[in-house]
Amino acid sequence: MLTRFVSEDNMIRYATGALLATYAGLTSADTIDNSLASLEGLLLGDNIPAVVTPARVEQPRVEVSSTLSVLSGEFIRRSNVQYVEDLLFYVPGFYVGPYWNSYRKVVAYHGTEKDRFRRIQVLVNGRSVYNSAYARVDWASLALSIEDVARVEVNRGPNASSYGSNSFLAVINIITRSPIETLGSDLAFATDDQGNRRMYAQHSGLSGNWSYRVSASRGTVDGYARKGDGDPRNDGHVQTSGNMFFLYEDNKQKVDIDIGAANLAADVEFYEVPGVSYDNTRPVLDRDREHVKVSWEVDQSAQHTLRAQYYYDRSERIEDHDIDVYGMVLNQLFAQDLPANEIYKGHLVSDLDENRHDVEVQSIWTPTSDYRLVNTLSYRQDRVSSKTYFDGDYKDELFRASTNLSYRAFDPLIINGGVMYEHSKLTGDYTSPQLGATYKLTQQSSIRANISQAYRVPDLYDQKAKWSYVFNSIRSIPAYSTGIPAEKITSYEVGFYHNIPTLGLSYDISAYREKLTNLSGSNKKYEDAIEDGGLLTPNESYAFTIDGIEAELDWRSAQGTLLRATIAYQDTKTDEEDIIETVAPFVTTLFASIPVSDSISINSRYIYGKEVASYDHEFLSLWLAYRMVQGSSTFTAGLGGNTRLDNNPYIRVNNVTEDKTSVFMFANVSF
């Protein structure tokens, strides 16, 4: 049995660092008159934080029976994170980083895959953003700027009873700011000495019951310069996105319209195939993505709210390799009869177009303070078109019906239960139940227990892939998917949550067991499949059990100090080395922002991951931030540095950083 454990010296290192940072915050943050004001709209009466993700309706966090993390707007702004996905470092059990290329980031929770993580549901304002063909999230192609984000809620564990298949290991719910919160204009710029830079601009306005925001951002990442063996890499990307958000609100109803578009222009890995060369050319990828979402919410009575939502998401992706190919390769992979040593020039192009229509109606009925019933019906159509991966078009249709009940059995005890039924035209019927209980010890603390079941329904690539390449109008030998069963998880969790408003402190501790069956590994690359008789379907499925403990702590002092600490330990019981290599058995993070004067603060982050895809990772960042308010304008600027404290690649052997230390700066003006 293969297991992985955390060494005692690393535990001591983390504990010592956390104590020192906490002590520094307590002793030096005494100069700013900044009350516990603001959890930025996340509070109900009596300073009880509220969340919306677990049951898809606002409820006090102390009454939630599943494990939840909330990254508030205040934390997001102070963290100086430039891309939304990097915020997830600060959620227990997550790790984030590039795999094949700088643009293709892995956002993984509890491991199971290194390069194509497909087991997390990601929502932006209720709109699912995972891809139709291959159920992963291409973070770099999202029309989303971190400055527009109000908060991020993460349901750690399955929640398929509310969100359906692919809500397998976690649900990430990204909620953007109301235009009313961002009235006026903002300009921001950030850069470092490693070739990374980013610009952002927005303008928000108000007219009667309507408000709006128009925002845009552009980020350039140079990526990794060399591979693990010292050879040069073709890495780096430019991400450009724009978004328009319109909001109408009166005392009975709300309408929001979200329109966005993004372009990703990226360098990609060279094909390392004998007989293929590039002759000073570089392979590139171009991806366009756009979405439109409209939602309407109306209070039909004090007890009943009705919501309706429609969104459309489309992406077009082209990858082009301008290559020289020996005839022997064309003979082997393209079934030709050409002179083996003759060189043929041309373009090897891969294409993938995806689109989704999704319509949903939801009813929220609260007949008394002891009952709340949320019923949802939805229809989704996913369509893909690709000569490369499907040799044509395929479509799936998904029908969903769910019900979720919250019942206060007696004053301290709350029962939360739900079930989702799904019917896929391609893969059949699935039912995902969930049952939890929360016992409130006080109005601000509770213990909880939860059991849930979820499926990862096979996506279109799992079922219908017919992968081949076209070179100078010649199609290669195809590789096929033959279909896989749905992956299944059963999760058991217990936890304790405590909020202490008088101290500005909250913390959460959870323990869990996850039993996973029918797990399919990352699908093979084309050349691997051809060697195995043309089959893309993995040769085997996996079953294993994960036991773990996770904890997080948030502290916001009356003097303005902000501290967030997380820790996660995971023990994966399996005999499969492929699974073990995907697991980070111990991950911890620490963030501190400490005011030292009315306008200056010192900020730091520390991240440590043990054996993140086999490599230890240790990172430290420190910066000073300056803030000046002049009338209705605010100017913020900062200067700092990052350093890697390890000498390892990150996640993958070719992710090698030559310079372990970098300097960065940022500036923002609001007016």
UniProtKB/TrEMBL annotation:
<feature type="domain" description="TonB-dependent receptor-like beta-barrel">
    <location>
        <begin position="236"/>
        <end position="588"/>
    </location>
</feature>
<feature type="domain" description="TonB-dependent receptor plug">
    <location>
        <begin position="63"/>
        <end position="168"/>
    </location>
</feature>
<dbReference type="Pfam" id="PF07715">
    <property type="entry name" value="Plug"/>
</dbReference>
<dbReference type="InterPro" id="IPR037066">
    <property type="entry name" value="Plug_dom_sf"/>
</dbReference>
<keyword id="KW-0798">TonB box</keyword>
<keyword id="KW-0998">Cell outer membrane</keyword>
<keyword id="KW-0812">Transmembrane</keyword>
<dbReference type="InterPro" id="IPR036942">
    <property type="entry name" value="Beta-barrel_TonB_sf"/>
</dbReference>
<keyword id="KW-0472">Membrane</keyword>
<keyword id="KW-0675">Receptor</keyword>
<keyword id="KW-0813">Transport</keyword>
<dbReference type="InterPro" id="IPR039426">
    <property type="entry name" value="TonB-dep_rcpt-like"/>
</dbReference>
<dbReference type="GO" id="GO:0044718">
    <property type="term" value="P:siderophore transmembrane transport"/>
</dbReference>
<dbReference type="InterPro" id="IPR000531">
    <property type="entry name" value="Beta-barrel_TonB"/>
</dbReference>
<dbReference type="Pfam" id="PF00593">
    <property type="entry name" value="TonB_dep_Rec_b-barrel"/>
</dbReference>
<dbReference type="GO" id="GO:0015344">
    <property type="term" value="F:siderophore uptake transmembrane transporter activity"/>
</dbReference>
<keyword id="KW-1134">Transmembrane beta strand</keyword>
<dbReference type="GO" id="GO:0009279">
    <property type="term" value="C:cell outer membrane"/>
</dbReference>
<protein>
    <submittedName>
        <fullName>Colicin I receptor</fullName>
    </submittedName>
</protein>
<dbReference type="InterPro" id="IPR012910">
    <property type="entry name" value="Plug_dom"/>
</dbReference>
<comment type="similarity">
    <text>Belongs to the TonB-dependent receptor family.</text>
</comment>
